[in-house]
């Protein structure tokens, strides 16, 4: 083992020093080596575990540019609810009668790890190493996969097939697994797997992971069209692989912008102002920083282009409910009538902030993804000081000399904490404080250093009122990625809600998005034990209580789009409106600044809705696309939505000639360029062709996809046999119909045969998420 570690260190030293001089870089007829000025700093320590060991917390491997040189098994787009296969070309899921499940992943052959001089074939053993270490060493995926079953739960079937047994099936954890970045070549990490196999104590395994695995100086190996060719104290350079290796990636990314930008340098300059200076001077051609409207206007006056994408980040004001009189829901809801959200957003600039009209922790443009059962109960903010005064007076409050008082004569006032330096929050929050003060509720805004605000005041719930981010979601179907987590309370709202307690609740009576009253109706779900399915119970016809812990658990445990999932989301949204745990006043629009001599990002916005245009020209982690963990270059290059000016981007070419739907339909579905997302294909073709002044080939017939029929027989020890035949869209382009039959014998004991009768065996082939999308469109 010691020999392996020494070899790893030597390889690390060699790989860091690599600069491609002998290899031939892939380029296009029109190509640029571009630089982006990143507003953070690079903490690079040569020959350290914090370089390329991704089991370490935030190594430089996760910094801009470098992280994009690792690839996931697949991408998942929460906006469209669609997958796009990457290292894996297909996968199947079997949910078994005893509640466990099997995920079988089929990998693409012919891909290689590359460090600048050498290669290692990519196989299932590399995937095995990563997840075996995660599960047995770090306890990942618990309780669905468990330490003591690691050898059973993760199995290599052959060099290009790997199988995962979830001891308890999770409807969502398999998505996380598929979208992890692969960074563990088997020859490099074999020593860690073999050591863990000999450990039988979980505490010993955890200690080994933290004292050995996280201390290992891993050599750098890329698994991507780009690799890190050079790194220094303040820069990372990534370069396209040599032609013979690069060609193998074209099967995954047939429409791409790679060859237009063969080298990307990430220059870490330490701040927004420095990034702005570098793009003005020509040192950088691209930045992605939240500048003020005035700063963006200055850039535009010097010929720099600025466009905004939907960031899905939202902002809100939390009032601590553990203080009188703010523990009264009606008092908290006074904000709905006192604050003008349009004016709040405009105080910073409507180019960068979009006002919210409803109190739901989701950006306004995501609401189209929610079912009508939820959107119909949203009521608009009214901005009506007369109504606000009537509410307070009905509760015994009174106004005197421009100041509101509680019934016992105490002035109604608040101290509002804000994150210092986050000027796009500080300015609007200060405006809101002034507006509340003008109404008669004195609010004193106080800026607090961001780290202190989060680690002290938010963590300990030590505030009267707080301005901060709200717990965003990208779509209804992916609310499970954020709303069920404890981070809602610690990292967003502030730790002032004890979710083990019952909280006041009522359902809103809403007509045409106007609130007309409140009522109570019990609500429960139907998930199997040990989940507590009681979400809402009533004291009378207008008032009840909600168990927030149960609601969050159901959101996490229910299948996205299912009836139980929808019920839990309904309860969550209704409580947010009734109790106002955080007054959501706006959504962030993210500005991107670039030199138009190098990029054309704007063509898609001439022909597509903003959300879809963002996905086409700038797919990234900003849209919470799982499998993409960066919001900087080269993310937009993978799906071919950008090219130098005067060049038709690859996706635009595929739209014009129709091949996006006749040949690359998975691209179209993943990015939302299909009729189910409101796209008129021929109108889109005509618009894009007009933009580039070229003719187009109309797509006159519906896209034809092949089907694969899978029949799976699952036999459990309870002698219950169930067979299901599922027809799903296949990634295979063959027109033949294939029938596959497999038998799986389960030796894990079944706890209750009574539960088995109600369980349906599901076989999911890639892209069978259409059923979930159909639920979303109800």
TrEMBL record:
The chain crosses the membrane at residues 754-775. Residues 83-466 form the Solute-binding protein family domain. Belongs to the bacterial solute-binding protein 5 family. InterPro entries: SBP_5, SBP_5_dom. Keywords: Membrane, Signal, Transmembrane, Transmembrane helix, Transport. Gene3D superfamilies: Dipeptide-binding Protein, Domain 1 (3.90.76.10), Dipeptide-binding Protein, Domain 3 (3.10.105.10). One of its GO terms (biological process) is peptide transport. Pfam families: SBP_bac_5. The keyword Signal applies. It comes from Caldivirga maquilingensis (strain ATCC 700844 / DSM 13496 / JCM 10307 / IC-167). This is Extracellular solute-binding protein family 5. GO terms for molecular function: peptide transmembrane transporter activity.
């Amino acid at each position: 083992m010691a020999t392996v570690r020494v070899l790893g260190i030597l390889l690390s030293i060699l790989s860091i020093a690599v600069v491609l001089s002998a290899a031939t870089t892939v380029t296009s007829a029109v190509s640029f080596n571009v630089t982006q000025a990143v507003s953070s700093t690079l903490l690079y320590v040569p020959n350290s575990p914090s370089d390329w060991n991704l089991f370490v917390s935030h190594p430089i491997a996760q910094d801009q540019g470098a992280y994009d040189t690792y690839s996931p098994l697949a991408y998942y787009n929460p906006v469209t609810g669609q997958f796009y296969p990457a290292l894996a070309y297909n996968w199947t899921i079997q949910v078994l009668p005893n509640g466990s499940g099997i995920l079988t992943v089929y990998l693409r052959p012919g891909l290689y790890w590359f460090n600048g001089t050498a290669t290692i074939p990519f196989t299932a053993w590399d995937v095995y190493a990563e997840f075996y270490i995660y599960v047995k060493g770090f306890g990942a995926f618990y309780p669905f996969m468990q330490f003591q079953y690691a050898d059973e739960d993760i199995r290599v079937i052959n060099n290009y097939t790997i199988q995962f047994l979830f001891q308890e099936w999770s409807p969502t954890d398999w998505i996380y697994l598929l979208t992890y970045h692969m960074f563990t070549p088997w020859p490099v990490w074999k020593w860690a797997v073999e050591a863990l196999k000999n450990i039988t104590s979980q505490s010993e395994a955890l200690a080994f992971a933290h004292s050995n695995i996280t201390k290992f100086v891993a050599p750098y190996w890329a698994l991507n069209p780009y690799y890190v060719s050079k790194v220094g104290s303040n820069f990372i350079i990534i370069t396209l692989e040599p032609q013979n290796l690069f060609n193998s990636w074209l099967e995954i990314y047939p429409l791409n912008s790679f060859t237009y930008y063969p080298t990307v340098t990430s220059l870490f300059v330490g701040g927004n102002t420095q990034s702005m200076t570098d793009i003005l001077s020509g040192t950088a051609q691209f930045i992605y920083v939240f500048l003020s409207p005035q700063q963006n206007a200055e850039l535009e006056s010097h010929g720099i282009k600025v466009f905004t994408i939907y960031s899905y980040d939202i902002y809100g004001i939390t009032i601590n409910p553990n203080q009188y009189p703010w523990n009264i829901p009606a008092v908290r809801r006074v904000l709905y009538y006192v604050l003008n959200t349009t004016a709040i957003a405009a105080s910073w600039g409507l180019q960068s902030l979009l006002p919210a009209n409803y109190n739901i922790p989701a950006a306004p443009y995501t609401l189209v993804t929610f079912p009508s059962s939820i959107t119909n109960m949203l009521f608009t903010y009214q901005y009506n000081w007369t109504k606000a005064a009537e509410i307070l007076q009905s509760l015994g409050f009174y106004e005197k000399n421009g100041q509101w008082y509680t019934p016992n004569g105490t002035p109604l006032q608040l101290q509002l904490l804000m994150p210092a330096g986050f000027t796009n929050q500080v300015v609007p929050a200060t405006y809101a404080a002034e507006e509340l003060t003008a109404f008669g509720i004195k609010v004193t805004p106080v800026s607090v250093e961001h780290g202190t605000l989060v680690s002290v005041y938010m963590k300990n719930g030590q505030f009267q009122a707080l301005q901060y981010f709200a717990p965003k979601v990208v779509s209804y179907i992916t609310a499970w990625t954020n709303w069920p987590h404890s981070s809602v309370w610690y990292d967003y709202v502030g730790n002032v809600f004890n979710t083990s307690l019952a909280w006041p609740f009522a359902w809103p009576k809403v007509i045409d998005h106007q609130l007309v009253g409140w009522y109570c109706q019990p609500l429960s779900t139907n998930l199997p034990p040990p989940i507590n399915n009681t979400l809402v119970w009533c004291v009378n016809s207008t008032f009840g209580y909600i168990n927030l812990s149960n609601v969050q658990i159901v959101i996490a445990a229910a299948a996205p789009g299912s009836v139980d999932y929808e019920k839990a989301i309904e309860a969550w949204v209704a409580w947010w409106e009734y109790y106002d745990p955080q007054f959501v006043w706006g959504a962030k629009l993210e500005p991107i600044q670039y030199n138009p001599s190098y990029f054309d990002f704007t063509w898609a916005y001439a022909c597509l809705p903003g959300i879809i245009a963002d996905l086409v020209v700038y797919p990234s982690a900003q849209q919470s696309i799982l499998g993409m963990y960066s919001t900087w270059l080269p993310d937009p290059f993978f799906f071919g939505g950008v090219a130098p000016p005067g060049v038709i981007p690859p996706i635009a070419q595929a739209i014009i000639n129709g091949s996006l739907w006749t040949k690359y339909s998975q691209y179209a579905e993943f990015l939302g360029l299909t009729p189910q997302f409101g796209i008129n294909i021929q109108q889109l073709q005509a618009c894009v062709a007009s933009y580039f002044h070229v003719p187009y080939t109309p797509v006159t017939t519906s896209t034809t996809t092949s089907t694969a029929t899978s029949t799976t027989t699952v036999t459990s020890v309870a002698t219950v046999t169930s067979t299901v035949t599922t027809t799903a869209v296949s990634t295979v382009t063959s027109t033949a119909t294939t029938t596959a039959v497999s038998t799986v014998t389960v030796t894990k004991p079944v706890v209750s045969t009574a539960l088995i009768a109600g369980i349906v065996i599901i076989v999911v082939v890639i892209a069978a998420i259409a059923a979930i999308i159909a639920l979303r469109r109800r």
